[in-house]
Amino acid sequence: MAEQPKCKICRRLGTKLFLKGEKCSSPKCPFLKKDYPPGEQGGRRRRRLSEYGKELREKQKLRHMYNLSENQFRNYVEQVLEGNPENFSESLIRKLEQRLDNVVFRLGLAKSRPQARQLVTHGHFSVNDDQVNVPSRQLEEGDTVAIRSSSEDKKVFKNLESRLKNYEVPGWLKLDRANLEGEVIGTPSLDEISISVKVPTIFEFYSR
Length: 208
Fold this sequence. Notes:
Elements: H1 6-13, H2 30-33, H3 51-65, H4 70-83, H5 88-97, H6 100-106, H7 113-121, E1 125-127, E2 130-132, E3 144-147, H8 160-164, E4 173-176, E5 181-184, H9 199-206
Antiparallel strand pairs: 1-2, 1-3, 3-5, 4-5
Helix pairs in contact: 3-9, 4-5, 6-7
């Protein structure tokens, strides 16, 4: 997908999406200083949104959070609708969470989802000991993810062990800090995924 100014995305949508990793949790985060829409016409007050506008905003939040293009995101929504699950919202979040790039991010092996996607694309990770370069690959319980031995000395992974020392992974993942390897040991649920998005409204948006 085309690169966009990540801090402006958060300001436009009115919430922190943590698109730039550690910077988003620091006092230097632009959203803390400018929590209003960007642009000369943005002003310091947000316009009241219509129902359509609210649904669009929630869709954009989740799409940008997982670093997806509109077509990619729509495909996930359509897959969920076609599957007709008991819980549409949880099914969608599960598909997004089980993407390889998201698992790399959730394991703490990348500082953000955009960085995780880039690292996967460049072939720095293996799944079940096989090199992979497809960020959208869906992982299942029992799959293992590791930094390839040929990539361990890369600058991007410098000081990773110390950074992971106090890092907590979600309950559906297990992290071997010594070997910088992770494993999918369960299934992500909506309850344990902390997101400030009203997921049901996304299905209402695409049902129009």
